[in-house]
C-alpha cells in the first residue's frame, strides 16, 4: 500500500537580535530605500553567540510539540545547513544528542535549496517503509560566512531555523518532489575558500543569479504542476525560498499565481538560506492561513546551482 510523507508538525526559531536596514546604513554604503526596493527586506535576525544547532534545537522542539511526538519516536533526523557547527560530526548528530533522540542523523547541503533536498530525501525513506517519523530541519547562521563589508551580500543573508515532523500517512502528504543540480554555475554563487581549513565568505554575481533563479523556479513550478495534472488554481499556498521579492513576484506572474497566495517572510527574515522555507511554513501554519487539506508548493534555488520543488497536501 502506498505511503505518503505527511507534515504533522512545524516549528521555527529566530535569534532575538534584530538588524534593520537603518543599522546597515551605518556601516555600509547603502540605504533602507535601496534595500527595500531592490530586495523587499526591511530587517533580519542575526545571531550573537548562537550556533546553527542552537537554532535547530529550538525549532525542532517546537515542531515536535505540534506533532505530539517525542524525540524517541523519531526514526531519522535530516538537517539541511550550509553553516554547520563543525566540519564533523554532522550538526544533525549534535542535535540528536541534545534532543535526546537515538535515531540516525545526517546533514544535507544544498544551500538555499537545502530544505527541499532534505524533504525529498525524507520522502524516500517514508515511502519505502524504512522510517515512520522523520524530523527535517533547515537551520543557518549565514551571518558567519557573510563579508560584512560587501554591500551586495551583507544586506541579504540572515540567521534562523525551521523544522517539520513528517509521518507516514495512507491518504496524503508529499505528492511530488524534484531536485536538480548544475555545478557549472559554481562561480555565480559560492564561498571563496580554496581549502577546507581556510575561511571564506559568500561571493555572488547577483544579477546573473537573479535571472537564473526566475527562469529555473518558473520552469520548475510549471513542470511540477504539469506532472501533478494541476494548474496554479489548485495551489493554495506557494511557500518559496525567500531570496528577493522581485524574484518571487516574477515567478508568481509567470505561473499565473496571485501574490496573495505566497507566504512572505522576507521583509522580516531576509534570506536565511535552507531555513527560509520552513520558517515561512511555520508562520503560515501558526497564524492559521495554511489549513489541513491545502496544497502547498515549496520551491528553492541556491548556490551550485541546486534547485528543487515539493508539492504537498498539508
Ligand atoms: O538565495 C540564493 C539565491 N540568491 C538570490 O536569489 C539573490 C539574487 N540576486 C538579487 O537578489 C539581486 O541581484 C541583488 C539584490 C543582489 C542586487 O540587486 P540588483 O537589482 O540585481 O542590483 P545590481 O547588482 O544590478 O546593482 C545595481 C547597482 C550597482 O551600482 P551601479 O553599478 O549601477 O552604479 C550596485 O553597485 O546597485 C548597486 N548596489 C547597491 N546600492 C546600494 C549593489 N548593492 C547595493 C546596496 N546598496 N546594498
Detailed description of the structure:
It is a single chain. This protein has 314 residues and is α/β, with parallel strands linked by helices. It folds into 2 domains: 4-169, Peroxisomal Thiolase, Chain A, domain 1; 174-313, Peroxisomal Thiolase, Chain A, domain 1 (3-Layer(aba) Sandwich). 33% of the residues lie in helices and 25% in strands. It has 10 helices and 13 strands. The chain has helices spanning 21-25, 32-39, 52-67, 91-99, 114-127, 151-154, 206-227, 245-254, 266-269, 276-286; strands at residues 4-13, 18-20, 43-45, 76-80, 105-108, 133-141, 159-169, 174-181, 189-191, 202-204, 237-240, 295-302, 306-313. A 5-stranded mixed β-sheet has the order 1-7-6-4-5, with helices on both faces. A 4-stranded mixed β-sheet has the order 8-13-12-11, sandwiched between helices. A hairpin with a 3-residue loop joins strand 12 and strand 13 (306-313). Helix 3 (52-67) packs across helix 4 and helix 7 runs parallel beside helix 8 (245-254). The two termini are 20 Å apart. 51% of the residues are buried. The mean pLDDT is 98.
Biggest sheet character:
5 strands, mixed
Gyration radius (Cα, Å) is 18 Å
The average pLDDT is: 98
Strand order of the largest sheet: 1-7-6-4-5
CATH superfamily of the largest domain: Thiolase/Chalcone synthase
Query: Domains counted in the coordinates: how many?
Result: 2
Order of helices and strands: EEHHEHEHEHEHEEEEHEHHHEE
Q: List the quaternary state of the chains.
A: single chain
Low-confidence regions: none
Briefly note the structural class of the backbone: alpha/beta
**Known CATH architecture of the largest domain:** 3-Layer(aba) Sandwich
Helical proportion? 25-40%
Shape: globular
Q: What is the tally of beta strands?
A: 13
Q: Briefly, what CATH class of the largest domain?
A: Alpha Beta
* Total DSSP helices: 10
Bound molecules: oxa(dethia)-CoA
| Beta strand % | 25-35%
Distance between the termini: 20 Å
Amino acid at each position: 500500500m502506498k505511503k505518503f510523507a505527511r507534515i504533522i508538525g512545524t516549528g521555527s526559531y529566530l535569534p532575538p537580535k534584530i538588524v534593520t536596514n537603518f543599522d546597515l546604513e551605518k556601516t555600509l554604503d547603502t540605504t533602507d530605500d535601496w534595500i527595500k526596493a531592490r530586495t523587499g527586506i526591511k530587517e533580519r535576525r542575526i545571531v550573537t553567540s548562537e550556533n546553527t544547532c542552537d537554532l535547530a534545537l529550538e525549532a525542532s522542539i517546537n515542531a515536535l510539540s505540534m506533532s505530539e511526538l517525542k524525540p524517541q519516536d523519531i526514526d531519522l533526523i535530516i538537517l539541511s545547513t550550509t553553516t554547520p557547527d563543525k566540519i564533523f560530526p554532522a550538526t544533525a548528530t549534535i542535535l540528536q544528542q541534545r534532543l535526546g533522540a537515538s535515531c540516525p542523523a545526517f546533514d544535507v547541503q544544498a544551500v538555499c535549496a537545502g530544505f527541499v533536498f532534505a524533504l525529498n530525501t525524507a520522502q524516500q525513506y517514508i515511502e519505502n517503509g524504512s522510517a515512520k517519523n522523520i524530523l527535517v530541519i533547515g537551520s543557518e547562521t549565514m551571518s558567519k560566512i557573510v563579508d560584512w563589508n560587501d554591500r551586495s551580500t551583507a544586506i541579504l543573508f540572515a540567521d534562523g531555523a525551521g523544522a517539520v515532523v513528517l509521518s507516514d500517512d495512507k491518504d496524503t502528504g508529499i505528492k511530488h518532489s524534484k531536485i536538480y543540480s548544475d555545478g557549472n554555475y559554481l562561480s555565480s554563487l559560492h564561498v571563496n575558500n580554496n581549502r577546507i581549513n581556510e575561511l571564506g565568505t559568500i561571493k555572488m554575481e547577483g544579477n546573473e543569479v537573479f535571472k537564473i533563479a526566475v527562469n529555473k523556479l518558473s520552469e520548475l513550478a510549471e513542470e511540477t504542476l504539469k506532472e501533478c495534472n494541476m494548474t496554479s488554481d489548485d495551489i493554495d499556498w506557494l511557500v518559496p525560498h525567500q531570496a528577493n521579492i522581485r524574484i518571487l513576484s516574477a515567478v508568481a506572474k509567470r505561473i499565473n499565481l496571485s501574490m496573495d497566495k505566497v507566504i512572505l517572510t522576507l521583509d522580516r527574515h531576509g534570506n536565511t538560506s535552507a531555513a527560509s522555507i520552513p520558517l515561512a511554513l511555520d508562520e503560515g501554519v501558526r497564524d492559521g492561513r495554511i489549513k489541513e487539506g491545502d496544497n502547498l508548493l515549496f520551491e528553492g534555488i541556491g548556490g551550485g546551482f541546486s534547485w528543487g520543488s515539493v508539492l504537498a497536501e498539508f
